[in-house]
Amino acid sequence: MNNLSINDIIQISNCEVINLQSKDIKFSGIAPLNRANKEQISFLINDKYIDEIFSSQAGAIICSKKTAELLGNKVAAGLIVSDNPHVTLAKVSQKFFKPLHPFHGISELAIIDKSAEIHPSATIFPFVFIAPGVRIGANSVIYSNCFIGAASTIGDDCILYPNVVIREGCRVGDRCILNPGAVVGGDGFGFAADTNENVKIPQIGGVLIEDDVEIGANSTIDRGALFDTKIGRQTKIDNLVMIAHNVVVGELCFIAAQVGIAGSTIVGNKVVMAGQVGVAGHVKIGDKVTISAQSGVSKNIPPEQFWGGSPARPYKEWAIYAATLNKIVKQTNKKS
């Protein structure tokens, strides 16, 4: 953990600082308003906690311009005034908390093919398997029991936590994080039904994961049948998500836990899918779409819309439907 000066924080966040008693103070970490001490930074993201500011012992508090104007000189702490306090909190937190890896270097207990190219600064834990033709970039960390298949590539500054599987012919960009049990490049669910058998269709595509993607624990991204499944840069995938073959997910998306996306679906940029959303195959979802939890998407969604329900529809339409159905059920129960 690093100690940061207020000048460090200004440089990181490009924020204005007001009411700070001394610019020489060094901050040792971040804590909630009701737990912070004078050497820690706190934050106000949700206005329902605003009363806690007045009793907080924090040395400085990240807040919005609106909150700073409201408080004025009523608090003892300095204020780190931000256009987006949540983002500022995230950026400052990254400087305080860095992943600590208990092993460095390339373990003699790892199984590494001679043709693999591993940057000297990479860390390979014991009991990793690295197949022929693999390339691993600078400062990447591969934890124990990971499997990296033939001709796959891992970019710079990646972290693969224990039991991650990267099958053959997959590409992972820079600064990606794959949490325990994630599987990238498993076979897609491709079969042709005959009278007495289900004939497997070879899945000869791979998976392309662009820069700054995070994949949650036990999530799976299937390889393409003929071309690559793709996950766009800065997309964040939660735990227990299933993405099928030939799906294309755009940039800056959020995909929450237990979402399932069927094959050949195209997802635009900045799409948000809440928990347990199910998406049928060959569907197109436009940019900046939000889909509420447990929705079932069976048709295309135009850009910048909010949908919900099963089958999914524009959210206002679904809310009216749900309210009407609830009213009918109540009336029916009264009659019976």
TrEMBL record:
Catalyzed reactions per annotation: a UDP-3-O-[(3R)-3-hydroxyacyl]-alpha-D-glucosamine + a (3R)-hydroxyacyl-[ACP] = a UDP-2-N,3-O-bis[(3R)-3-hydroxyacyl]-alpha-D-glucosamine + holo-[ACP] + H(+)
Assembly behavior: Homotrimer.
Domain UDP-3-O-[3-hydroxymyristoyl] glucosamine N-acyltransferase non-repeat region span(s) in chain numbering: 24-94
CDD domains hit by this protein: LbH_LpxD (cd03352)
Protein family membership: Belongs to the transferase hexapeptide repeat family. LpxD subfamily.
Task of the protein: Catalyzes the N-acylation of UDP-3-O-acylglucosamine using 3-hydroxyacyl-ACP as the acyl donor. Is involved in the biosynthesis of lipid A, a phosphorylated glycolipid that anchors the lipopolysaccharide to the outer membrane of the cell.
GO biological process: lipid A biosynthetic process
Keywords from the named record: Acyltransferase, Lipid A biosynthesis, Lipid biosynthesis, Lipid metabolism, Repeat, Transferase
Enzyme Commission number, as recorded: 2.3.1.191
One GO MF term attached to the UniProt entry: UDP-3-O-[(3R)-3-hydroxyacyl]-glucosamine N-acyltransferase activity
Gene3D superfamilies: Hexapeptide repeat proteins (2.160.10.10), MurE/MurF, N-terminal domain (3.40.1390.10)
Broad EC category: transferase
GO cellular component: membrane
Recorded metabolic or biological pathway in which this protein acts: Bacterial outer membrane biogenesis; LPS lipid A biosynthesis
InterPro entries per UniProt: Hexapep, LpxD, Trimer_LpxA-like_sf, UDP_GlcNAc_AcTrfase_non-rep
Keyword Coiled coil in annotation: no
UniProt-recorded name of the protein: UDP-3-O-acylglucosamine N-acyltransferase
Active site: H245 (proton acceptor)
